[in-house]
Amino acid sequence: MQSNSTSIFSGNRGRPVPFFWTNNERVWTLTPPGNFECHKIPKNVKGRNNLPQYNTSIISHPSLGTVISGGSGIDTIVHSMDGKNFSSLGRMPSQRYAHCMCAIDGGKKLLITGGAPETNTWLYDTNRKTVVSDLPELMPNRWWSACGMAKRSDGSEEVVVVGGMDERYKNDVDIFNVDSRTRRKGTVC
């Protein structure tokens, strides 16, 4: 178990990994060497109308820590480097839940796509705290997709969006090249 715990933390530079945000306003944090801690989320990082965030998209990135966006009736983006202290990264143009998000450009930008009630794709600048571009829709009308960034051998970044559902579960793959702003279909294994 110790070796598994070490591998979990190596990508996060040995920092605690906040990994679960519940609808009772608490975050569970996994800390080296594998202990669990529970922390109350401060009221100032909740969404509009002081609602807790759930049905969110959550990622971990070395330069941003844990980033939590959206949720049912929520348009906020927050982050924490330690799982205890959360601060705002701003607001999305509208409320979004059941979406996917990934960090690109070294964490300077977030790509947010899919979900409900809208399924359009945004490129969000984490420094300017605003959407800098509307992008081509990836996997239209999809909720609960998974996505992540992959670097190609030429150094360009691509976002891979996999699965999700509309009226039924999907096994489609969409690939979006960040530099050329082009989209293509991937193959399913």
Descriptive overview:
The structure is a single chain. This protein has 189 residues and is mainly β. It has a single domain, classed as Kelch-type beta propeller (Neuraminidase), CATH 2.120.10. The chain is 5% helix and 42% strand. It is built from 1 helix and 15 strands, in the order H-E-E-E-E-E-E-E-E-E-E-E-E-E-E-E. It has a 4-stranded antiparallel beta sheet, with no helix packed on it. The protein is globular, with a radius of gyration of 16 Å. The two termini are 31 Å apart.
Flag low-confidence runs.
Answer: 1-12, 20-24, 48-52
User: How many domains in all?
Assistant: 1
- Tally of strands: 15
- Overall mean pLDDT stands at 75
Which shape, going by the Cα principal axes? globular
Largest sheet: 4 strands, antiparallel
Radius of gyration: 16 Å
Q: Give the CATH superfamily.
A: Kelch-type beta propeller
In CATH's first tier, which class applies?
Answer: Mainly Beta
Distance from N terminus to C terminus (CA atoms, Å) equals: 31 Å
Give the strand order of the largest sheet, numbering strands 1, 2, ... along the chain. 4-5-6-7
Order of helices and strands: HEEEEEEEEEEEEEEE
* Annotated CATH architecture: 6 Propeller
- The amount of helix comes to under 10%
- The share of residues in extended strands comes to 35-45%
Give the tags:
single chain, 189 residues, mainly beta, Neuraminidase, 4-stranded antiparallel β-sheet, 15 strands, 42% strand
